[in-house]
Amino acid sequence: MHSFKKVSKAVLVIAVCTAILILLDTALYPCTFMRNDVYTVATQEFDDIIVGTSHGKMDIDPETMEEVNGRSGHNLCVGGEYGIDAYYLTKLICEKQQPKRIIYEVDPGYFVTEKEEGNNYLLFYHEFPLSKAKAEYFWNSILKCNFRTVLFPWYEYSLSYEIPKIKETFLQKVKKDYSIDGLKSDSQEYHESGFIERYPVDVRKLKKSEPKLFEEDKLNHQNMEYIEKLIAYCKKNDIDFVAVTTPIPIATLKDYSDNYNAAWKYFGKFFEEQGVEYLNFNTQYFKAFTHDLKAYTDYDGHMNGDAARQYSRILAEILDKK
Questions:
Q1: Fewer CB within 10 Å, N or C, the chain?
Q2: Contact 74, 40 (CB under 8 A)
Q3: What is the pLDDT of residues 90-115, one digit of tens each?
Q4: What is the DSSP string of 255-283?
Q5: How far, in Å, CA of 6 to CA of 121, rounded?
Q6: What's the rounded Cα separation, in Å, for the pair 46 and 40?
Q7: 296, 307 in Cβ contact below 8 A?
Q8: Alpha carbons 247 and 318: distance in angstroms, whole number
Q9: The pTM is what?
């Protein structure tokens, strides 16, 4: 009897602690655009799903593409999204629906770097509904994080910013409100299609910054492993897979020509060996879209909204021909 009471108390303490953690998570973890993205692809069906990095997020507009080819789509790209994230996002989607095509946006710099500790680890996983994909994702990625990332996910965000929004955040989650009104700033806005539109900037005031440069001897093999897994998963499930590298301003291409040329050569060969289509708008499709800095908001290659819509139209036309 005595041991039973001890066990009961331990269970009660664990239950109370768990409830407190859930309450704090609900109140303090912000409602990010990824919350909307994951909810959308887990509850709606699409022909095309776009995964990749911030270039894909700000350069590819699914609504414009649909105007061209009639295919519905959602943009799941975001800065900090590595191959492992794209892989488990795709597995989650396939538990809920069956997309016809995965469009993977390739940024060479993401293959020579490691996923950073911090909220990027949680950005996707935190929004996953209970699923087999979430369990696998936790085991192969989140489990390796600092324990605070798992138990106290809000600690990665500024409490001075989140505390004043506690009521708003809490009610939005409790009411299951996925409105996009709060996902807009002075420089950009989130669209329901997952596309983030950046507003035009005065390019004369832009400063150059060094991008993540590709070097084959620094290749992160785990990143390549998960792209291979993603391609194999798509083939197994009869999903078309297309790789795309979006245009980069000509000034940046010239400044780091050796690194970019090495990247184009490597990935061209890699995707050819994988037997998948690779559309590189800095090599064979160089002339398909402008590389003039005026179409971009930085030297890294993130387009303004008007340019992104023009590019998305061209991308859809090329994909349609393929």
A1: N
A2: yes
A3: 999 999 989 999 999 999 999 999 88
A4: HTHHHHHHHHHHHHHHHHHHT-EEEETTT
A5: 36
A6: 10
A7: yes
A8: 14
A9: 0.92
Closest CA to 178 of 42, 8, 290, 293: 42
Q: Contact 71/48 with Cβ under 8 angstroms? A: yes
With H, G, I as helix, E, B as strand and everything else as coil, classify residue 316.
helix
Residue ranges of the alpha helices (H) in the chain? 2-28, 33-43, 54-59, 62-69, 83-96, 119-125, 132-140, 147-151, 159-162, 166-174, 221-236, 250-255, 257-274, 305-321
Amino acid sitting at position 118: G
- Which SS3 state, helix, strand or coil, does residue 119 take? helix
Express each pLDDT in 169-214 by its tens digit.
Answer: 888 888 899 999 889 999 999 999 999 999 999 999 999 988 899 9
Domains, the chain, with CATH or none: 2-321 (3.40.50.1110)
Task: Let me know: does 121 contact 148? Beta carbons within 8 Å.
Answer: no
Determine the straight-line distance between the first and last CA of the chain, rounded to whole angstroms: 72
